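Sample pair:
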Amino acid sequence: MQALPDTLSIAQEIQLSVAPVFMLTAIAALLALLFNRMSQTQDQIRVLGERPEGEGTVAEPDKAVSRLLAARVSRIRWAIRCNVTAAILICAVVVSIFVSDYLVPDISNLIAILFIAAMALLAAGFILLLRDVSRS
C-alpha cells in the first residue's frame, strides 16, 4: 500500500486543480447565458401562441416563426447538455487529480482523456451558441 501523500504533494494537486475550477466558473457563466436565451425564446413562443386570430387558425408566417423558434430552443438545449456534461467531466478531472496520489496505477491518461472530452464538449457548446446567435 502506498504511503499517504505529504503536504507538498497535496499543495501541488491543489495548484493543478485551479485551472479546471476556473473552467467551471466560465461554464457556469455560459450556462446562465444559455438559460437566459432559452427563456427569452420560450417567451417569444408563448406570445406567438397567445396571439388572437380572427378565424381561430394560425397564420402561415406565425407557423414559420414558430418552427424557427422551436429549432432555436433545440439548439440551446443541446448547448446546455454539452456544457453540463463538460462541467461534470471537469469535476471528474479535479477528483482524479487528487485520487491519483492514492492509486498505484498511473491514471494520467484517464485525466487527459477526461480533460480532452470536456474541452470537446465545451467547444461543441460554443459552436451551437454561435449557430444560434448567427441565425437570430
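The longest helix spans residues 7-49.
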